[in-house]
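Field reference: sequence -> structure
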Amino acid sequence: MIVTIAKRFTFDAAHRLDRLPPTHKCHRLHGHTYQVEFVLRGKMDDRGFVADYDEIAQMWLPLHGQLDHRYLNEVPGLEIPSTENLALWIWRKIREDLREDSPTLSDCLVAVRVSESSSTWAEVTKS
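Structure field:
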């Protein structure tokens, strides 16, 4: 049997989408309380877990430090900090880190979802 689990985190950051016209509200500097959700899918191990939620939290910590209370336009690789690019940036960073540190988590990670508000989100999935 395959089980899907998820864990959600938040961080606060500012950005501006300077490729939009100057008259667009998102062209101006503004901030969000982002939500990041990691979705993992797999078989349960002998502990009864797909993955330990604490291991997922440990995986998130380094990225939280790079994103929380930052100006995202200045984060290397996030010069265009749309929600879509942010989700892709997190996906790539997590996949790179997991390959070395936790191949089991890497195999189970199927999606990263980033919400910038209660009504908008972008998701990157394992193909």
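Note: The chain has a mean pLDDT of 94.
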